[in-house]
């Protein structure tokens, strides 16, 4: 049995780590606004953040997990949606068209999932399905399980997105495309959420975050092999 104070501290730490991760895209959006150009950036990561966090917000609502689940992922939805909007504003065709289509697709996906789970979200459901559930056939528990599986899939997609970058780093023997601070923040976030999921006995939470830890470890290994990228001049960071 975990002491309540320790659990509260873990929830606060997991929330803070997630908010730090979702702050990173805002820095990218700031650079886009400053340059008024998206460069070679892709809108796909922003769309993935919105889709992923939308699922986990609903998952948290059904399980009445307001902090850290709902709180942190609601911020993620807002962050991803804002960055996607900034991308669309400053992108030129065909990137602008692609980003607009992604926004419509993600919005439709979020609405569809919310409608499918509306009853479960309203009534709530236990994390573990019991035969004594007061709901007929435990539909609400099954809905939560389905959302958990969907969330795991969304997380896997997000964690797989850097794989092409890792391949490029290995091929070029340069970590210029990686950001050490982001890697450290991602590792910390994954560790905290994996620990939270383990203590809560929720495999849908700890499972994908263990994968996130491994992904961050792979990036850390590349920094050890090829060194950290050179720090940009201060004027370039403003």
Automatic annotation (TrEMBL):
Spell out where the chain crosses the membrane: 6-26, 38-62, 68-90, 102-121, 146-166, 178-199, 205-226
Q: Which domain of life is it from?
A: Eukaryota
Lipid bilayer topology: Multi-pass membrane protein
Q: Which Pfam families match?
A: MtN3_slv
Tell me a GO cellular component. Golgi membrane
**Which Gene3D superfamilies does this UniProt record tie to the protein?**
1.20.1280.290
Report the InterPro entries cross-referenced here: SWEET (IPR047664), SWEET_rpt (IPR004316)
Q: Which GO terms describe its molecular function?
A: sugar transmembrane transporter activity
Q: Which UniProt keywords apply?
A: Cell membrane, Golgi apparatus, Membrane, Repeat, Sugar transport, Transmembrane, Transmembrane helix, Transport
Q: Where this protein primarily resides, as one coarse class? A: membrane
Q: Where in the cell is it found?
A: Cell membrane; Golgi apparatus membrane
Q: Which family does it belong to?
A: Belongs to the SWEET sugar transporter family.
Q: What is this protein called?
A: Sugar transporter SWEET1
Taxonomic source organism:
Pelagomonas calceolata
């Amino acid at each position: 049995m975990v002491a309540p104070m320790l659990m509260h501290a873990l929830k606060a730490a997991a929330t803070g780590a997630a908010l730090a991760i979702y702050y990173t895209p805002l820095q990218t959006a700031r650079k886009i606004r400053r340059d008024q150009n998206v460069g070679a950036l892709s809108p796909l990561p922003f769309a993935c953040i919105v889709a992923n966090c939308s699922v986990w917000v609903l998952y948290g609502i059904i399980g009445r997990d307001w902090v850290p689940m709902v709180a942190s992922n609601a911020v993620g939805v807002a962050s991803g949606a804002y960055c996607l909007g900034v991308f669309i504003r400053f992108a030129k065709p065909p990137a602008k068209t692609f980003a607009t289509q992604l926004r419509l697709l993600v919005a439709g996906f979020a609405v569809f999932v919310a409608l499918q789970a509306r009853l479960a979200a309203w009534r709530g459901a236990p994390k573990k399905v019991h035969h004594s559930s007061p709901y007929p056939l435990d539909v609400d528990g099954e809905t939560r399980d389905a959302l958990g599986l969907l969330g795991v899939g969304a997380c896997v997609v997000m964690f797989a997105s850097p794989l092409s970058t890792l391949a490029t780093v290995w091929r070029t023997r340069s970590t210029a495309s990686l950001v050490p601070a982001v890697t450290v923040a991602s590792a910390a976030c994954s560790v905290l959420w994996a620990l939270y999921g383990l203590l809560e006995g929720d495999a849908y939470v700890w499972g994908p975050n263990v994968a996130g830890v491994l992904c961050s470890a792979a990036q850390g290994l590349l920094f050890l092999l090829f060194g950290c990228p050179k720090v940009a001049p201060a004027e370039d960071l403003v």
